[in-house]
Structure formats: structure tokens, C-alpha cells
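Summary for the steering committee. One of the milestones for this cycle was to obtain a three-dimensional model of the protein with adenosine-5'-diphosphate bound, which we needed before selecting residues for the alanine scan. The sequence and ligand used are listed below.
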Amino acid sequence: MSERRMGPAAAGEILGVSDLRRSFEQGGVRIDVLRGVNLSVGDGEIVALLGPSGSGKSTLLQAVGLLEGGFEGSIRISGVEAARLGTDERTTLRRDAIGFVYQFHHLLPDFTAVENVVIPQLIAGAGPGEARARAESLLSSLGLGHRLTHRPSQLSGGEQQRVAVARALANRPALVLADEPTGNLDEATADIVLGEFLRLVREEGSAALVATHNERLAGKMDRVLRLHEGVLD
Ligand code: ADP
Ligand code: MG
């Protein structure tokens, strides 16, 4: 990353957001979903993004994950101002610095668990042997050492989400963005999978921003941010 693009990041800041605004037009009505969001996530910090359904958690994560334009304000990933990047640079930054976990696993259905974790590493330039070893290590650490060659449809919901967690961490991202990662699981399974996710994120030293509408799950993280009427309080 060139010096030119390094912003004035606070020491150890992985994610910085200033005055982020996002509105949608729906049936001629304008909805201001994000109305000036400010936040900062430090190196290795795990932050919960708490808010009821419809409060804008996914909108915020999509903007921060550089998945969508259409917002106003500043998003800095490791000090790099996203708005100043071209499309290719933004894709590279997203691939190298950010891992995603969604509510629904979004695994590739025709590939095995281990292949789903290998593929993003190959895209990022890893060698096949190294990628395979990393995938097996992550999946084993999540208790899936005996499920490496299963396809997503042959796995339980909790197992599918564990594979999605391994995939998100495969390229050693500085920042993991998780959008209700256990929202599709029953309560007992959600607790177990979230606990494993948090443990692995800590072991890997990544920072994470985790959207949830569940107060109890949010309480397991280092810090809780509440999204309310378009701002964090
Ligand atoms: P959450 O993830 O907290 O449930 P969302 O970010 O999905 O909330 O949605 C926040 C609000 O923005 C909702 O009112 C939703 O209907 C609206 N919204 C989200 N995406 C779009 C879109 N692409 N077009 C129009 N409205 C949208
Ligand atoms: Mg959502």
C-alpha cells in the first residue's frame, strides 16, 4: 500500500467510519437509513453492532465491506480511504483485508467444505498445497476435520456456518464483517457456533464487526455499538 493513500488513522485503527450516510428511494419515498454514523474498530477488537431488524445493520456492513457504493462519508480500512480507490484497488483491498460471514452461508454448492475454504486463497494468490493445509487447519479447529469432503447440502446448518467462518478467515483478514452469522441457527447451536467464531477470530488476531439483534450474543463481544434511528449511540 503506497504512503500516498495512507490516511491519518488513529494508532491501531483497522476500521474508521465518519459521518456515513445512506438513503434509499422506495415507491417515491426517501428513507434515510444511515444518518451520520461514526465508529472506530481497533486492531484485534471484536465489536457487536446491535439493532432491531430494519435498523440498517446490513446496510452499514455492506458499505464498510466496500460491497456497495451510494453512500456519503468516509470509510477507512487500515488507514486507506475507500472513496479514493478505483474499482480494481477496492476489489484488492476487500479481498486482502476483509472476510465476510453472512446469515446464510453462501457456500459454493458444488464444492466440498475444504474446497470452499481453499478457493478464496487461490484467488488471492496462495499455492494449492499451502491453501489446502490452511483450510484443513481452520476446519479442524472448528471441529470439522471429519467433514472436509462433504458438500454444503450434506452439512447441518451449524456446520455450514462453521465452513463459512473458516472461509472468511482463510486469507488472514485484518477485519471480519459478520452479518447475523448465527441468525439462522437454533439458540443452542447459535451459542456454540458464535463461541467458536469468537475464539477463532481472537486466535487469528483479526478485528471483527458483528451485526446481531440479540443482546445476549452481543454481550459476548468486547464492545457493543447500538444502531438507533440511523446513528450509533
Ligand atoms: P437490518 O440489517 O438492520 O435488518 P437493513 O440494513 O437490511 O436493516 O435495512 C434497513 C432499512 O433500509 C430497511 O428499512 C430496508 O427496507 C431499507 N433497505 C435496505 N436495502 C434497501 C434497498 N436496496 N432498497 C430500498 N430500501 C432498502
Ligand atoms: Mg440485516
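Key point for the committee: The pocket of adenosine-5'-diphosphate (ligand 1) is lined by residues 24, 26, 31, 33, 51, 53-59 (CB under 6 Å).
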